[in-house]
Amino acid sequence: MTDLDTAGRRALTGPRHPERYLRDLSTELTARFDGVFNAETVERYVLESYTALLRTATVKAHLANRVIRFATDRLTALAQAKGAITHDVPEVLFVCEQNAGRSQMAAALMHRIAGDRVHVRSAGSAPAADLNPAVVLALEEAGVDVAHEFPKPLTDDVVQAADVVVTMGCGDACPVYPGKRYLDWRLDDPEQLSLDEVRRVRDEIVVHVERLLERLELAPASMEMEGPR
């Protein structure tokens, strides 16, 4: 059983006693990243991640599991940026404003099309509380399950770890680091769109993703869309 399995069980009751829960999670992640980060760095990341997600949390029952994933991913990204953890595939970060629509669709669709040949993350400059229901449905129709995904705030660590940063209507919120490829995809924001229009945006994203994979010299696998188009 891994440390995160233990943390996952604690997630059922963690938010009722946040101080103890965060302390226990910090201890578990310190052990996981032993030799990479000291306990103080891990504690700071866990607390920052909890505080950031708490701002938009509407259902506290999901908060603990989200903190586990968010803090772990941020520490992994920081370790990658520092060269402490190697990665053999391109890292692509998708950023929009709320991380509830376009960037989530792009990350999910790229993962569906490219599989393990690319590692994807997504984030938002002003994250919403939950994913757009129409986006969730449009992805489900394409055979992509995002039931466990959630909006995440944009942090420097995930930008530093990325090889390619794709922005979608987030303005100048994304920090710019040398040596990275920055792209801007002009896509309609699904927030005020009908389901049919969200499907159109989804299909536009598939085309963008396939072109990006070609630029990364990774031929996209064929993807059969399910449900209405």
Spatial ordering of strands, largest sheet: 2-1-3-4
Proportion of β residues?
Answer: 5-15%
Largest β-sheet summary: 4 strands, parallel
Within the CATH hierarchy, at the fold level, what is the topology of the largest domain?
Rossmann fold
The gyration radius over C-alpha positions equals 18 Å
Could you characterize the architecture of this molecule?
The chain is built from eight helices and four strands; from the N terminus they run H-H-H-H-E-H-E-H-H-E-E-H. The protein has helices at 3-10, 18-32, 39-54, 63-81, 102-114, 133-141, 156-161, 195-215; strands at 91-96, 119-124, 164-168, 181-184. It has a four-stranded parallel β-sheet with strand order 2-1-3-4.
Topology:
Blueprint: H1 3-10, H2 18-32, H3 39-54, H4 63-81, E1 91-96, H5 102-114, E2 119-124, H6 133-141, H7 156-161, E3 164-168, E4 181-184, H8 195-215
Parallel strand pairs: 1-2, 1-3, 3-4
Which descriptors apply to this entry?
8 helices, 4-stranded parallel beta sheet, globular, Helicase, Ruva Protein, domain 3, Rossmann fold, single chain, alpha/beta, 229 residues
Task: Summarize this entry quickly.
Helix content is 47%, strand content 9%. It is α/β, with parallel strands linked by helices and 229 residues long.
